[in-house]
What we know:
Elements: H1 20-34, H2 43-57, H3 62-71, H4 73-83, H5 94-111, E1 117-123, H6 129-141, E2 149-156, H7 159-167, E3 169-171, H8 180-186, E4 187-189, E5 197-200, H9 202-205, E6 208-212, E7 225-230, H10 239-252, E8 253-261, E9 274-278, E10 281-284
Parallel strand pairs: 1-2, 1-7, 2-6, 7-8
Antiparallel strand pairs: 3-5, 4-5, 8-10, 9-10
Helix pairs in contact: 1-4, 2-4, 3-4, 5-6
Amino acid sequence: MNGVLQAAPLAFGREFPFTQADFRFVQQLVKERTGINLSDSKDDLVYARLAKRLRTLGLASFAAYCRYVAQHDDERINLINAITTNLTAFFRERHHFDYLREVAIPALAHEKRDSRRLRIWSAGCSSGEEPYSIAMTVLEALPQPERWDLRILATDLDSNMVAKAEAGIYGAERVQGLSSAQRNRWFLCGDGANQGRVRIRPELKEVLRFRQLNLMDPWPMAQPFDIIFCRNVVIYFDKATQCRLFNRYAEQLHPQGALIIGHSESLHNVAGRFKPAGKTIYRKVC
């Protein structure tokens, strides 16, 4: 015995050696770069998501991969893209879109009848279903939408998801829950080699702008938003990070602007600048 403690593997029978030290490296990097807290119970998830990167790079162990990541900034991006979870659907948590259609847009249409300028942000847009659902709802609810200066910003940490969202191409099964009127109005059906796929129509895409953005970094947006969607994002952050993020959202919203969060999230004890306006819907008060 030489007296040096060796890092023990987290599990046996895996394709690649994966030690506690390897997991801590990934855990710390993800926390520093994204604000996301990976609990100790996520070691299996980390292994499964990153083992593909080891195969791609031809590396024999997670220790070798950690060294590679430390030396290559582009691989840090691949690591973050692999770890972040993307689960979404068109009109997920439909009560938010009911609020948008029945309350928010009619009120904004009246309030902004002179300027006719409307700005919405989908922060954490994943593969695009959320911002496209927002766009459909707004264009259907807004009186004479062609006369409005409407822009919807869609951002995500995962650059691969941003590219997929911007492409606007989905399997036909993804839109089966939509009404036939919505499918006909907003989607083009593929044929031939694209049989079984649908594409977002250009008139819907033109109101959207897609960008890669880390919410922990400085935000480049100079103008305030009327509505911000940030759903199922802050559940990965600790309370201190959530508080900072919600305060930044308050700064980025118009007075009385709306912040919409996910069904498992809450602003309780993390943000004093909002008041409830519905189920996981909040209005800025200061």
